[in-house]
Design a protein that fits this description.
The complex is a heterodimer of chains A (89) and B (247). With 89 residues, chain A is α+β, with helices and mostly antiparallel strands. Chain A has one domain. Chain A has one helix and four strands; from the N terminus they run ββββα. The radius of gyration of chain A is 15 Å and the shape is globular. The radius of gyration of chain B is 17 Å and the shape is globular. In chain B, strand 7, helix 5 and strand 8 form a beta-alpha-beta unit. Chain B contains six helices and eight strands. Classes of the chains: A alpha+beta (89), B alpha/beta (247). Chains A and B meet through strand 1 and strand 2 of A and helix 2 of B.
């Protein structure tokens, strides 16, 4: 099925590296839908985008759900470390 | 069946007169032919959808596939274009209808067109094929596992895809619907609801749902591919087009 479920996240001071090098990314689309490349019927997909730079300014990942959950938890761990450092500063 | 064809990228006028990239495939043999407007799925104007256009040309039809993402992402890779349009909320329904109208008008200007035109689409394209069929004077329409016709997309999707059930009364041509029993979008209950609504309004339609098949069972590149359902589905489509697109 196509869930069409899509979350949009505004990104601040964030960058990604694509085929032509580093660029600022300003938004992320997160959705559970058919992947283009991952060997599964569905995947948790993330598009890091900068619409001002055109459609090719995109870094995409397609994750199986367990990997996506592990990534999400790792992100929260890293963010918690960031919070701790900020509190110490 | 003919494998001698001309297939090329052209420009057509879509909604608002906007120029759209489009792929036109047609048999080389002379004679007037019915035509199929192929509406690509959400992943975009991709290789697999272009292959479907050539399949219909091989079966003797003029096949025209507009790139619905031409405006936001001209000449972009299909997956980049799809990501761009998804981030912007999808293709607005009104624009889709205008784009299909433009495709039909382009076909009507071709010297080998017999005047009969059908639409076909899969998944979101199936919904849009239904949308075109309740909005435009077509001769036939095919919707393969159309999502969001009865229930609409999840509220959080951010996509502009309102339900279309209340438009069933406006269907202007015969409709062929192909579904998988294991699909969750649309569910068999959604299919039954649409079937009942079309019956209530006396609309000519044929619905088939395949056991052991789910969403995207036509997609040869995906694990969802179900050969038996896809082969029979293409037979149903061929018979439907032969009946309604003949001169």
């Amino acid at each position: 099925m196509c869930t069409y479920q899509t979350e949009h996240v505004d990104l601040q001071s964030s960058s990604a590296k694509g085929p032509t090098g580093w660029f600022a990314v300003t938004t992320a689309s997160v959705y559970y839908d058919h992947p283009v490349h991952a060997p599964a019927e569905h995947a948790v997909n993330i598009d890091f985008l900068n619409p001002d730079l055109g459609p090719a300014a995109r870094v995409a990942v397609e994750l199986d759900p367990a990997s996506a959950r592990a990534l999400a938890e790792a992100l929260l761990v890293a963010v918690a470390a960031s919070d701790a450092v900020s509190a110490d500063a | 069946m003919t494998f001698d064809m001309k297939a090329e990228t052209i420009a057509i006028a879509g909604a608002g007169g906007d120029e759209l990239e489009a792929y036109l495939a047609q048999p080389l043999a002379e004679g007037r032919r019915g035509a199929v407007v192929l509406i690509h799925h959400m992943p975009g104007y991709d290789r697999s959808t272009n292959e479907i256009a050539r399949r219909f040309a091989a079966e003797g039809y003029i096949a025209l596939l507009p790139n619905l993402y031409s405006r936001e992402a001209p000449h972009a890779a299909p997956d980049d274009a799809a990501a761009t349009v998804r981030a912007r909320g999808g293709v607005p329904d009104e624009r889709l209808v205008g784009d299909v109208r433009g495709a039909v008008q382009h076909i009507q200007g071709l010297p080998n067109a017999n005047g009969k035109v059908a639409t076909i689409g899969h998944c979101s394209g199936g919904r849009q094929s239904f949308l075109a069929a309740v909005s435009l004077p077509l001769d036939a329409a095919v919707a393969c596992y159309p999502g969001a016709v009865v229930t609409g997309p999840p509220p959080a999707s951010g996509l502009s895809m309102p339900p279309l059930l209340d438009r069933a009364k406006d269907l202007q041509c015969p409709l062929l619907g192909l579904f998988g029993d294991d699909d969750k979008f649309p569910t068999p209950e959604d299919v039954a609801t649409l079937d009942k609504e079309l019956q209530a309004h006396g609309k000519v339609h044929e619905f088939y749902s395949y056991p052991g098949a789910g969403h995207a069972f036509f997609d040869v590149d995906r694990p969802a591919y179900r050969p038996e359902a896809a082969v029979d589905g293409y037979k149903k489509i061929a018979a439907f087009f032969a009946r309604y697109l003949a001169s």
